[in-house]
Amino acid sequence: MSGTIEDRIYDLVCPLIESMGATLWGVRYKTSHTRALLQIFIEHDDGVSADLCGDITHVLSPALDAADIIAPAYTLEVSSPGLDRILFTLDQVRDYTDNTVRAELRIPFMGRRKLEGLLLSVSEDGTLVIDDKDQGQMEIAFANVSLLRVVPKFKTNTVPKAAKAHK
Q1: Can you give the residue ranges of the Ribosome maturation factor RimP C-terminal domain (predicted)?
Q2: Which domain holds residue 119?
């Protein structure tokens, strides 16, 4: 078998998730000294409920155990990618152009491992142009990004002024 653990898991679970009417957003496998965590992020046209996550967990768990891709002890989490979603592929990154993102780099660029700013563009060769809040426009190779997350947008003040006066 070749590819990363995440690639092999993706190939295994994608058809199972799709058979349940959901879409696989991404796979993340993290290990520490004390535990291993497998995160499966899914999307569904009607939203992702706790019931759907539970149903998919019940299907994936025995398939993952039988495939024996991961060392014996790990925790499986199935969830929505959320508002601060991780972007796993260049196609996903392209969909979030003109949004604020946070990037963690494998190799420091201009002395920095972490960036945050507006994602301006993504080239065909995988170069991201990010308008970093501290250093301005930076060109980063997607291959050098270990983690890229969308920074959610929230409305700052949705309470009418008259309602505030009565508090």
Answers
A1: 87-154
A2: 86-150
